[in-house]
Amino acid sequence: MKEIRVLALALFFALVYLAVLFVDLLPISLKLGSYASQRFFLLVTISVVSVIALSVLARAEGRFIINSIWPVLLVSAGFILLSLPRAFSPFSWAEPGMYALYFSGFVLAGCLPKSSQQKMDVVITLISVTAIMVTFYGMATITVYIFALSDDVVSLTDYIPWGFVNIRYWSHIATWVLPLLPLAVLIGPLKNQRLWRFLVALGSALWWWIVFLSSSRGTMLGVIFGMLVVAILMGRLAMPWLKTSFRYFCYGVVAWLLLSVLIPSLLIDDVVVRSLKADSSGRMPLFVEAWHMSLVEFPFGMGPQSWLTHEIITEGYRQSPKFGHPHNMYLMWAAEYGWLMVASILVLAGQAMYLFSQRRKEIAEDGAKALALTAFTASVSAALLHAGVSAVFMAPGSMLVGFAVLSVFWVLISGERLDSKRKPTKRRTFAALVIALVGSGFCLVWINNVRDYHAAMTNDEQVYYDGPSVGMLPRFWFHGNFPRYGPTEKD
Predict the structure, then answer these.
(1) Residue 171's Cα: distance from chain center in Å?
(2) DSSP label at 188?
(3) Which of 125, 160, 281, 434 is found 20 to 30 A from 172 (Cα to Cα)?
(4) What is the 3-state secondary structure (H, E, C) of 300-319?
(5) Which of 430, 415, 408 is nearest to 359 (CA)?
């Protein structure tokens, strides 16, 4: 039974990474495009996981479940209830439904494993699959690198990172996975295998190289922030992870010097090395606009996707380049769903911090669990900081990897679920069945609404391309400037 469970988990995590890192190799990507393919995969994933998890937990002892999930139910209900005033707007349920299922999904999934051993099985499975897929992507990047140099490409960032419609969507993934890679050589059955340790180090070095190559400031700051958080909260328990993380960072610096400076300089006359910027890259007018939006109908927000449809408030944003989101998830949620929504998310964050403190006390003498909690806390902390300057919880690839990481993080911080030895009553079994049927029905209706949104967006693309050229503005779809405010919408 254990082997089947681990194999199923490994397959699920592998599919997640396949859909994120290698989506262009999938047949569905040829039909829908990589962005839309990832979005549909995300929606199906969170729907299935949420319905199954809630049905399973409905048969368990009620008190533990209610105490564990009421904060996330508050968050999920908030996205739905705060969207009701715009219930009849076009495609108004696509995003609130996604966020309601996303948050509830990773918390419910995190409550499923019962015993300590089951929890560690989940952790080891995810970090093993992560290390394999990340290393494979890194080695494939070397192939792209060789072809780029053979064609005398002076700017490697035109080709690397590859497989993403936007260079920053790759950096979101790096923020999630880089803190997990050191854990792959610190715990698990392969931790003492030299080949495994070499491959993980190679993958880490290549990903850090791409971070430096693409000047991914959000990833750099996020990972450093995650390291500081666990250094403070975990203390000496985090030292093995911190040492390994720093070593991998140094490997990345060496890889950058070798692959981005030395080798290109020997082969190409004019090498372009991307430099770090100290400015906000045009984000500040977006932040200010989102802040003013959040105050228009305080504390309820202006409605789902109102960032795309509202009349511009500030002159700074009117004069600045437009994007499908304000590059700050928290301000976007405040602007569209209100500060009440942000407050409910803070309640969930408070529960997470409380559970973390409880587990921190319990695992002080268990090195493997302490290291696992360290790595996943660093990963989540890095992503939460990165979300303050980028669309970490909007880009579908980032949301997919984040869903897996957040689920396992919740597995680590949630207590052991000690169900009653008695068999579930017929009433509980019936309730679980009803939940499964009703939940599945709602998810199918919602996904059908999303399909309609996708069809309308696809039909609108020609209107968009015939208008002024402003580039793609990714949001829910890659053509994220639909629905939008203005005459073109009415035409």
Answers:
(1) 11
(2) S
(3) 125
(4) CCCCCCHHHHCCCCCHHHHH
(5) 415
For the record, the structure tokens of 239 come out as: 């030292």
Instruction: Return all residues near 127 (Cβ < 8 A) that are at least 6 apart.
Output: 180, 181, 183, 184, 187, 188, 375
- Gap between the Cα atoms of 287 and 295, Å rounded: 13
Which residue in the block uniquely carries the two structure tokens 């300057």?
Answer: 389
| Residue 300, phi then psi, degrees to nearest 5 | -100, -15
Q: Note the pTM of the prediction, 2 decimals.
A: 0.95
The Cα–Cα gap between 390 and 164 comes to 16
In this structure, the dihedral spanned by the alpha carbons of residues 475, 476, 479 and 485, taken in order and rounded to 10 degrees, is -70
User: Which long-range contacts (C-beta less than 8 Å, at least 24 apart) are formed by 402-405?
Assistant: 402/176, 403/16, 403/42, 403/45, 403/46, 403/49, 403/102, 403/105, 403/106, 404/13, 404/16, 404/126, 405/126, 405/176, 405/180, 405/376, 405/379, 405/380
Q: Is the peptide bond before 90 cis (omega within 30 degrees of 0)?
A: no
- Separation between Cα atoms, residue 129 and residue 131, nearest integer Å: 5
Distance CA 357, CA 345 (A): 18
Cβ atoms within 10 Å of 158's Cβ, excluding its own = 10
At residue 83, the 3 state secondary structure works out as coil
415: tokens are: 């207590």
Give the 3-state DSSP-derived string for 409-449, with helices as H, strands as E and coil as C: HHHHHCCCCCCCCCCCCHHHHHHHHHHHHHHHHHHHHHHHH
Sign of CA dihedral 447, 449, 455, 459: negative
- pLDDT 10s digits, 127-174: 999 999 999 999 999 999 999 998 888 788 889 999 998 889 999 999
Among residues 280, 333, 327, which one has the least CA distance to residue 474? Answer: 327
For residue 44, what are its two tokens?
A: 């199906």
Cβ(76)–Cβ(104) below 8 Å: yes
Please provide the distance, in angstroms rounded to a whole number, between the alpha carbons at the two ends of the chain.
Answer: 59
> What is d(CA 474, CA 35) in angstroms, rounded to the nearest whole number?
9
Question: Of 265, 264, 155, nearest to 215 (Cα)?
Answer: 155
CA distance 468 to 204: 42
Do residues 91 and 151 touch, judged by C-beta distance below 8 A?
no
| One-letter amino acid for residue 17 of the chain | Y
Six-digit token string for 21: 């890192």
Which residue type, as a one-letter code, is found at position 418?
L
Per-residue pLDDT tens for 75-131? 999 999 999 988 888 888 999 999 999 999 999 999 999 889 999 999 999 999 999
Q: What is the number of residues in the chain?
A: 491
**Dist. CA 134–CA 471, nearest whole Å:** 30
422 confidence band (pLDDT: 50, 70, 90): low
**The predicted structure's pLDDT at residue 205:** 98
